[in-house]
Design goal:
Elements: H1 2-27, H2 29-59, E1 63-64, H3 66-88, H4 106-131, E2 137-138, H5 155-169, E3 175-179, H6 186-199, E4 205-212, H7 217-228, H8 237-248, E5 254-261, H9 267-270, E6 282-287, H10 290-296, E7 301-304, H11 310-321, H12 331-341, H13 345-355, H14 360-371, H15 385-394, H16 399-408, E8 417-418, H17 419-429, H18 438-454, E9 459-460, E10 466-468, H19 471-485, E11 487-490, H20 493-501, E12 510-516, E13 533-538, E14 560-561, E15 575-579, E16 581-583, H21 587-590, E17 598-602, E18 605-606, E19 620-622, E20 630-631, E21 643-645, E22 654-655, E23 668-670, H22 692-696, E24 703-708, E25 725-730, E26 744-748, H23 754-758, H24 761-767, E27 770-774, H25 782-786, E28 796-802, E29 807-810, E30 826-832, E31 837-840, E32 853-857, E33 866-867, H26 868-871, E34 879-883, E35 890-893, E36 911-912, E37 918-924, E38 929-932, E39 942-943, E40 946-947, E41 956-957, E42 960-961, E43 967-973, E44 978-981, E45 1002-1006, E46 1013-1015, E47 1030-1034, E48 1054-1058, E49 1065-1068, H27 1069-1072, E50 1080-1084, E51 1091-1094, E52 1103-1105, E53 1111-1115, ...
Parallel strand pairs: 3-6, 3-7, 4-5, 5-6, 11-12, 12-13, 13-15, 14-16, 15-17, 16-18, 17-19, 19-21, 20-22, 21-23, 23-24, 24-25, 25-26, 26-27, 27-28, 28-30, 29-31, 30-32, 32-34, 33-35, 34-37, 35-38, 36-42, 37-43, 41-44, 43-45, 44-46, 45-47, 47-48, 48-50, 49-51, 50-53, 51-54, 52-55, 53-56, 55-57, ...
Antiparallel strand pairs: 1-2, 8-10, 9-10, 39-40, 58-61, 59-60
C-alpha cells in the first residue's frame, strides 16, 4: 500500500505542475496577446528611431556598424513574425473548429497564448538591445594602394632606391627630396618606395599626394585628410590646417609623399607638421627642379633621379620592340633612335611601342623626325622628349585612338579618367562612327584605352576601369590639341578671359574649364560659334561622379551660379558637361542646343528642366546627383535618347506614367540610389508614378541599374536575356558593392522561390558576377535550386541569414560530378544555421579553381570547410576566415572511408596552399586540426609500421604547406596544445618538411588555455618564425615561455603578452639577442612571471642590445623581480618610454650594466588592474565583445602606438632617472615602496 501511495505522490508531482502551467496559458490568453501588441509597438518605434540615425550616417558617407545591421536584419524577421501572428490570431480564432464556434478550442487557445508569451519575450529583448546602440556608424578610412605595374629595378635606380630607404630609416632626416626632369620616373620610383615601405612595415601609414603646377591648398588638405579618415568641416584654410596638424601629430610613424612640387609650398599653412619629437615621421618630395627642394623647401637630403644607362635603355627598348630589332637593316636605326631618346624612360617606352612590328621605312622616318625635333614649352623638359611623344601619337593606328587621347587631355591634371566618362564624351563627340549600340561603343572605348596603355600614353588609374595620363604626356597632348585641333584645356576663368580677349579661342571646337573656382565670377556670355565640346567643373572635393560610392559627395557651400546668357554663343554644342553648377536661369539657353547629343549635369541645382525635352537629338542625358524632384514629362519626347542616368538623385520622387516608355531608343537606365516609388500597373487605381512594366516594353534596354524594395511589384518575366549589364537590388538589401570592375550584380532578399522563375530573376542569376543572397528561407541547395548550370559567370558570392540550406554545392547522384563556381573568386557566408557542408558529393575538376577569399561566420552545423579532394583546386586561395562556428572541427578533412584507425604512412597526403596569405580561426570551440588525417578525438601509437593516430596532434603538421602565409590569428579555438608539430613519429619519413611559419609576419594567439608551446621544441629549424614582425599572446595559461632558445625573432617589431598566468619568463637570453628590430614590447597580467629575459646563470661576457626598441611597458606583474637577472650588459639606444604599473617585487631592472641614452624618465602608471587586455599598437581594449570586429581588419604590424596622451596622462607619475641610470632609479623606487609598506604596517600594529 505504501508503494502505491509513493507512486501516486510522484505521479501527482510530475502532473500537477505542468497542468497548472498550461492552465495559466489559458487564463492569461488575452493579456499575453495585449502584451505582445505593446512590446511590438515599442520595437517598431525603436527600429524607426534607429533608422533615422542610420539614414543620417549614410548621408554623411559613414559605414554602419555590423552589430546594428545584424540587429536590423534580425528585427525584420521578428517583426514580420509578430505582425503576422497578431494579424492572423485574435480572440475569435480560439473559438473556431469547436461546436461551430460556440465554445473555445482550449487546445488552440493554449498554444496561441504560449506562443504569444514567448514572442513577447523575444520582442522585448530586442527593444532592450536597441537601447544600447549609442553609436550606429563609423567613418571608414581610405587605404592607399601602391601597385606599380611595369616598374623595372634598373641598376641606375638601385643606388637611389637604397639611399631613399636608408634616409627614411635615419632619424636625422625628416624630409627627403627627389629631383629630375619630367618623365624620368620620379613618381613611379616614389610609388615603389611607398610599396616597399609598406611591405617592410617601416611606416604605419603611407600617403601620396600630387601637388601639381598650380597647387590648391584645400585639395591637398582634403586628400591628406581622406587618407587619414579625417573629416575637415572648417571652411577657412587656416582652420583646416589646424585640424589637419592636430590629426597628423597623433601619428607616430607615417610617410607623406608630396609629388610634383613646382614651387615653394608652405607646409605649415597646409597643416603638415608632425612635431619635433616625431623622428619616424617622414616627408618625401619630388620636383623637376633641385632649387625648389634645396633652397625653397629646405630639404637637406636630395637625390637625383637620372636617365637610364645606355645598356639599360637598350635593354628596355629591345624588350618592347621584340624580334623586330633583330633585323640587320633595322638594328643600326634602333641604336640611333635609342640615342635620340637620351635615356628618358617615357620617351623610350612610347617610341618603342610606336615602332613595334613596323617596317624599315617607318623606322627611318622615325629617326629623321627625332633628329629634327624642337623643344617644347614645358619647363625643364629635355628638348628631345616632345618629339618622341608626338611620334607615338602620330603612329597611333586609328583616328579614334587619337581623338580619345585628345579627349583625355581635357581632364584636369592627375585626374582619374573613368572609361564611362570617356564613353559619354565619345558618343557626343561622334567618335564612334557606324556604332549604334552603347555596349559596342563601350567595348570600343576599352579597346582604345588598352591600346593607348600598351603604348604608355595612358596609365592605370587608381581603380578598375579608370586611367591616368602621365604629366609629360598630358602636356604634350594638350599642346597638340591646341595647335592642331583648336581644343583647349583652360585652368581658370582668368585664363579664359585672357584667351577670349586676344581671340585665341575664337575658332575653338572644344573648351574644358576643368577646375573652376566656385567663388569666381563667370562672364555674362561666351561667344564660341564653332565650339562643339564644353566642359566646366567646379573645383571641389569628390567631383568624380563615377567614384561616388567610394567618395560620397556632400555639398560644401553653394554651387557656382551660371549667368542666364552664358551659353547663347555656343549653338553648335554637341557635348555639354557641367558639375556643381546652379542652373536656375538657363531655360532659354538650353533650347539653342539643337545639335547636342551628350548632356551631363552632375550635382547641379536644376531649375525648370522641361526645356531639356526640346533637345531632340540628345543621346545621353546624365543628371546624376542633381536636386531634381520630378522628371519632366517633356523628357518623354527624347525618342533618340540612348542613356538616361539618374543615379544618386535622392530627391527624385515623381516620374509620371508613360515618360520612360516613350523613350523607345533607350538602351541604358541607371537609377542607383535614386527613384524607388514604382506604381503597380493594373491594380485598378489611377497611377501617379511610372510602373516597372514601362521598362519591360523598352526593347533596346540592355543596361539596367534598379532598386526594387518589394519583389511583389515585379511584372511577370520582367528580366530577360537582353540585359548585358545590370545592378539589380530586390528587397531590403542594405549591402552595396563598390567594385568598379564588376558589371553584373544582383542582390536578393525574398522569401518565396517562385519569384525567381515568375519574374525572370533566374536569367540574372545565371549571368551575375556578384550575387548577394539574404534570407531565402525557401532554399535548400544553392546550385541545385538557383542555377543548375553552376553559376559559371559568378565571381563573388555573399550569402547570409538562412536557416534552411544544407549545401552550397552538391552532387545528388553518387556517380555524377557537379560543375559549379568555376570562376568564383570570393565566397562569404554568414549565419547559415543549417549548413552542413559547403561541398557535398563529387565535384568537377574546376570547381572553386579561382577562389581567392573565403569567409565563414556563424554556421553552427558546419564541421569543416572542404574535403581534401577540393584542396587540389584551391591553388589561388589567399585568405581563409572562419569564426564562431560551434561544431567546426577541421578546416580541411581527409576522405575517411573504411578503417581510418589503421593508416599507413603512404596514405597520408600533403596539402598545399601556395598563395594563402591570411588565416583567421576565431571562436571555434571544437577545432582539433587544420588538416585532419583521421577522425578527430582518436588516439595513436606505432604498431608494426602502422600509424595509430593520437589526439595530441597539433593544429598544423608537416603535411600542411603554406609558403606565403603572412598573417595567422587563433582566438578561442579548440583545446590546442601546440600550433606546429614538426616531428610526428612516422609522418616525416625521409622527406624534408616545409615550415608553415617561415614567411609569417603577424601571429596572434588568444584564449588558448591548453596551449603548451607555439613551436615543437624538439624540432629545431633556422626558418621558424624568421620573418615574424608582430606577435601577440593573450590568455594562454599553460605557456611557460614564448619559444625555445634557438628561435630567432630577428624581424620582430611588436611583441605583446598578456594574462598568461603560467608564464615564468618571456624569452631566453639567446632569443633576446635576436630582437634587433623590436620597436615595442608590452607585458601585462602574467602573475607567475619573475623576469622578462630568463637567466641561465652560466652566461659571461657579451651583451643584449635592443637596437630599435622605443617603448617598453610592464603592467601588473606581481612576481616580477627584474627585467633580466643576469650579468650581461644591456643596451637600449632608442628607448624613449618605459611604463611600469603594479610590479611590487621589481627591485632592479638588471644585475648588469644598462645603457638607455635617450630615456630620461620612467612613467609610473597609476591604475587598477581590471583584467582587460591592452593592445599596444592601436589603443583598443581587447575585451570579448571587441574581438570579432577587430579581426575583420588587417593588422599593421610596424606601428608603435604609445600615444602622447598616455605618456602625459594625469593619472601617471613621471620619475626622472636618478643619475641617468634605470637600475638605480628602480632600486630607489622599490626601497621607497618597501619603507612605505613597513611604515604602514608599523602604524597599523
Amino acid at each position: 500500500m505504501e508503494i502505491l501511495i509513493d507512486i501516486g505522490a510522484k505521479i501527482t508531482e510530475y502532473m500537477v505542475g505542468p497542468i497548472v502551467q498550461q492552465l495559466g496559458y489559458l487564463f492569461n490568453y488575452k493579456s499575453n496577446l495585449e502584451n505582445l501588441r505593446t512590446q511590438f509597438q515599442n520595437l517598431k518605434e525603436a527600429k524607426e528611431k534607429l533608422n533615422h540615425s542610420i539614414d543620417e550616417a549614410k548621408r554623411n558617407g559613414e559605414e554602419i556598424e555590423v552589430d546594428v545591421l545584424t540587429w536590423m536584419s534580425r528585427v525584420d524577421g521578428i517583426s514580420e513574425q509578430a505582425q503576422n501572428f497578431l494579424r492572423d490570431h485574435h480572440e475569435g480564432q480560439a473559438y473556431r473548429g469547436c461546436f461551430r464556434g460556440q465554445f473555445p478550442n482550449l487546445l488552440s487557445l493554449n498554444q496561441l497564448s504560449r506562443k504569444a508569451k514567448i514572442m513577447t519575450l523575444e520582442v522585448a529583448a530586442e527593444s532592450k538591445v536597441a537601447e544600447g546602440f549609442h553609436k550606429v556608424s563609423y567613418l571608414p578610412i581610405l587605404q592607399s594602394v601602391f601597385d606599380v605595374k611595369g616598374y623595372v629595378a634598373f641598376q641606375s635606380r638601385k643606388s637611389t632606391f637604397s639611399k631613399i630607404v636608408d634616409a627614411l630609416r635615419n632619424p636625422d632626416f625628416d624630409m627627403i627630396g627627389l629631383y629630375g626632369m619630367g618623365g624620368v620616373g620620379k613618381t613611379m620610383l616614389c610609388k615603389e618606395v611607398a610599396r616597399k615601405a609598406k611591405e617592410l612595415m617601416l611606416f604605419s601609414k603611407v600617403i601620396m599626394v600630387t601637388v601639381s603646377h598650380s597647387p590648391k591648398l584645400e585639395s591637398i588638405q582634403q586628400e591628406v585628410a581622406e587618407k587619414l579618415g579625417l573629416k575637415l568641416e572648417e571652411k577657412s584654410i587656416p582652420g583646416r590646417a589646424d585640424r589637419l596638424r592636430h590629426r597628423l601629430r597623433q601619428e607616430n610613424k607615417i610617410l607623406l609623399i608630396l609629388d610634383d612640387v613646382w614651387e615653394k609650398l608652405e607646409l605649415q599653412d597646409i597643416g603638415i607638421s608632425f612635431g619635433d619629437d616625431k623622428k619616424e615621421c617622414k616627408i618625401l618630395l619630388t620636383s623637376r627642379c633641385q632649387d625648389v627642394l634645396y633652397n625653397e623647401m629646405g630639404v637637406e637630403q636630395n637625390l637625383l633621379v637620372g636617365v637610364l644607362f645606355d645598356s639599360e635603355a637598350t635593354k628596355l627598348f629591345n624588350t618592347i620592340v621584340g624580334d623586330t630589332v633583330k633585323d640587320s637593316g633595322i638594328r643600326p636605326l634602333a641604336t640611333e633612335i635609342i640615342k635620340e631618346c637620351a635615356g628618358l624612360p617615357i620617351a623610350i617606352t612610347t617610341v618603342a611601342n610606336a615602332l613595334r612590328n613596323k617596317s624599315r621605312p617607318v623606322w627611318s622616318n622615325a629617326l629623321q623626325e627625332l633628329r629634327i625635333s624642337t623643344p617644347t614649352n614645358i619647363k625643364g623638359m629635355h628638348e628631345k622628349v616632345y618629339s618622341g611623344i608626338k611620334l607615338s601619337y602620330v603612329c597611333l593606328r586609328s583616328e579614334e585612338a587619337k581623338s580619345l587621347l585628345l579627349l583625355c587631355s581635357l581632364f584636369h591634371e592627375d585626374a582619374n579618367i573613368d572609361e564611362e566618362h570617356l564613353l559619354r564624351r565619345g558618343i557626343g563627340w561622334g567618335l564612334f562612327r557606324g556604332i549604334t549600340k552603347l555596349e559596342e561603343a563601350r567595348n570600343k572605348v576599352v579597346t582604345l584605352v588598352e591600346d593607348l596603355k600598351t603604348r604608355c600614353l595612358l596609365l592605370d588609374g587608381y581603380y578598375s576601369g579608370s586611367v591616368k595620363m602621365h604629366d609629360v604626356v598630358r602636356d604634350v597632348i594638350i599642346s597638340i590639341a591646341s595647335k592642331d585641333r583648336h581644343m583647349y584645356n583652360i585652368n581658370n576663368v582668368a585664363e579664359l578671359d585672357g584667351c577670349f580677349n586676344d581671340r585665341t579661342l575664337r575658332d575653338s571646337i572644344a573648351i574644358s574649364l576643368s577646375q573652376v573656382d566656385c567663388d569666381c565670377q563667370l562672364p555674362e556670355r561666351l561667344d564660341f560659334p564653332k565650339v562643339q565640346f564644353f566642359c566646366m567643373n567646379c573645383s571641389r572635393p569628390f567631383r568624380n561622379i563615377f567614384m561616388h560610392y567610394r567618395y560620397p559627395h556632400f555639398r560644401c557651400g553653394r554651387n557656382l551660379e551660371v549667368p542666364s546668357h552664358f551659353f547663347e554663343g555656343m549653338k553648335e554644342l554637341r557635348v555639354l558637361e557641367l558639375t556643381s553648377m546652379s542652373l536656375e536661369s538657363l531655360t532659354f539657353s538650353f533650347s539653342l542646343f539643337q545639335n547636342i547629343q551628350t548632356l551631363c549635369l552632375w550635382y547641379c541645382d536644376m531649375g525648370e528642366a522641361a526645356i531639356i525635352g526640346e533637345l531632340k537629338n540628345l543621346k545621353i542625358l546624365d543628371l546624376s546627383g542633381s536636386n531634381i524632384e520630378e522628371l519632366p514629362k517633356q523628357i518623354g519626347q527624347l525618342t533618340r535618347l540612348q542613356m538616361l542616368d539618374l543615379k544618386y538623385c535622392s530627391k527624385l520622387k515623381v516620374i509620371r506614367p508613360n515618360i520612360i516608355s516613350n523613350l523607345t531608343s533607350l538602351q541604358e537606365l541607371n537609377m542607383d540610389g535614386s527613384f524607388t516609388d514604382w506604381d503597380v500597373e493594373g491594380d485598378g487605381g489611377e497611377r501617379s508614378n511610372a510602373s516597372l512594366m514601362e521598362l519591360k516594353n523598352l526593347h533596346s534596354l540592355a543596361n539596367l541599374h534598379l532598386d526594387i524594395p518589394d519583389a511583389n511589384i515585379l511584372p511577370k518575366d520582367f528580366f530577360s536575356e537582353k540585359l548585358e549589364r545590370f545592378n539589380i537590388i530586390i528587397g531590403d538589401v542594405r549591402v552595396r558593392y563598390f567594385d568598379f570592375g564588376i558589371s553584373r550584380k544582383l542582390s536578393l532578399k525574398i522569401n518565396e522561390s517562385n519569384i525567381l522563375a515568375e519574374h525572370g530573376v533566374e536569367v540574372l542569376l545565371r549571368k551575375s558576377e556578384v550575387l548577394y543572397l539574404d534570407g531565402l528561407g525557401c532554399l535548400n541547395n544553392v546550385v541545385q535550386e538557383l542555377d543548375s548550370e553552376g553559376f559559371q559567370q559568378l565571381k563573388h558570392l555573399h550569402f547570409r541569414n538562412n536557416v534552411q540550406i544544407q549545401y552550397i554545392v552538391s552532387s545528388m547522384e553518387e556517380n555524377h560530378t557537379c560543375s559549379a563556381f568555376a570562376n568564383l573568386e570570393l565566397l562569404h557566408i554568414k549565419k547559415l544555421l543549417n549548413l552542413e557542408k559547403i561541398c557535398n558529393g563529387k565535384l568537377a575538376q574546376n570547381c572553386f579553381g579561382k577562389l581567392r577569399d573565403i569567409e565563414v561566420i556563424e554556421c553552427d552545423k558546419l564541421r569543416n570547410l572542404f574535403p581534401f579532394s577540393v584542396t587540389k583546386e584551391l591553388l589561388q586561395l589567399k585568405r581563409i576566415t572562419v569564426m564562431s562556428c560551434k561544431l567546426m572541427q577541421e578546416i580541411i578533412f581527409y576522405g575517411r572511408e573504411g578503417d581510418s584507425q589503421n593508416m599507413s604512412d603512404k596514405t597520408v597526403q600533403k596539402i598545399q596552399f601556395p598563395e594563402l596569405r591570411t588565416l583567421k580561426l576565431c571562436y571555434l570551440p571544437n577545432l582539433v586540426h587544420f588538416y585532419s588525417l583521421v577522425e578527430p578525438n582518436c588516439r595513436t601509437h606505432r604498431e608494426g609500421g602502422q600509424l595509430i593516430i593520437d589526439s595530441a596532434m597539433s593544429l598544423f603538421n608537416e603535411k600542411v604547406t603554406c609558403p606565403k602565409l603572412t598573417n595567422l590569428t587563433l582566438i578561442r579555438s579548440g583545446s590546442l596544445k601546440e600550433i606546429w608539430h614538426g616531428q610526428s613519429e612516422g609522418l616525416l619519413g625521409d622527406e624534408e618538411p616545409t615550415c608553415i611559419f617561415s614567411g609569417l609576419r603577424g601571429l596572434t594567439l588568444s584564449e588558448l588555455p591548453d596551449l603548451r608551446h607555439i613551436w615543437d621544441e624538439k624540432y629545431q629549424t633556422d626558418i621558424a618564425l624568421l620573418n615574424l614582425m608582430s606577435l601577440r599572446v593573450v590568455k594562454c595559461d599553460m605557456l611557460k615561455n614564448l619559444a625555445p632558445s634557438w628561435i630567432s625573432f630577428q624581424n620582430l617589431r611588436t611583441l605583446q603578452v598578456s594574462s598568461c598566468y603560467g608564464m615564468v619568463n618571456l624569452l631566453t637570453s639567446s632569443t633576446a639577442k635576436t630582437l634587433a628590430q623590436l620597436r615595442a614590447l608590452a607585458i601585462s597580467g602574467c602573475k607567475s612571471m619573475t623576469e622578462i629575459i630568463g637567466n641561465k646563470g652560466s652566461e659571461t661576457g657579451g651583451e643584449i642590445v635592443f637596437n630599435q626598441l622605443v617603448a617598453l611597458e610592464c603592467r601588473h606583474l606581481p612576481s616580477l623581480t627584474s627585467f633580466y637577472s643576469g650579468n650581461l650588459m644591456m643596451g637600449f639606444p632608442k628607448l624613449k618610454y618605459v611604463g611600469l604599473s603594479d610590479c611590487p617585487e621589481m627591485s632592479s631592472f638588471s644585475h648588469g650594466v644598462v645603457s638607455t641614452p635617450q630615456l630620461g624618465i620612467l612613467t609610473l602608471i597609476d591604475e587598477e588592474w581590471d583584467g582587460k587586455v591592452y593592445c599596444i599598437d592601436d589603443d583598443v581594449e581587447w575585451t570579448d565583445d571587441d574581438y570579432t570586429e577587430m579581426y575583420f581588419a588587417e593588422l599593421d604590424f610596424d606601428e608603435v602606438m604609445i600615444s602622447d596622451d598616455e605618456w602625459n596622462s594625469d593619472t601617471n607619475r613621471l620619475q626622472e632617472l636618478i643619475e641617468g641610470d634605470i637600475n638605480i632609479t628602480i632600486r630607489e623606487l622599490w626601497e621607497r615602496d618597501q619603507f612605505d609598506v613597513a611604515l604602514q604596517q608599523l602604524f597599523t600594529e
